[in-house]
Amino acid sequence: MTMTHIEQQLENLASPGDRQKHLHGLAVLKQIGGENFGGPVSQLASFSEDLARFTIQYPYGDV
């Protein structure tokens, strides 16, 4: 399975120290979010990468 542009963009937001949490968060988001799981977070990243990273890592990676 190939990674979409949005998946790659969102994966690249991971900081080195939180990469595992970030990747876990992406996997959960993809599982519950369906086909366009990354659309809203990708749009958020276009003006705030930090907020997009938090949106993936905290609610989906930690909680």
What are the defining features of this structure?
globular; mainly alpha; 63 residues; 4 helices
Describe the model.
With 63 residues, the protein is mostly helical. Helix content is 68%, strand content 0%. It has four helices and no strands. The chain has helices spanning 5-11, 19-33, 39-45, 49-62. Helix 2 (19-33) packs across helix 4 and helix 3 (39-45) runs antiparallel to helix 4 (49-62). The longest helix is centred in the middle third of the chain and has 15 residues, at 19-33. The protein is globular. The mean pLDDT is 90.
Poorly predicted regions are none
Indicate the mean pLDDT: 90
Large-scale geometry:
globular
Largest sheet: none
Topology diagram in text:
Blueprint: H1 5-11, H2 19-33, H3 39-45, H4 49-62
Structure described in brief:
The protein is mainly alpha-helical. It is built from 4 helices and no strands. The mean pLDDT is 90.
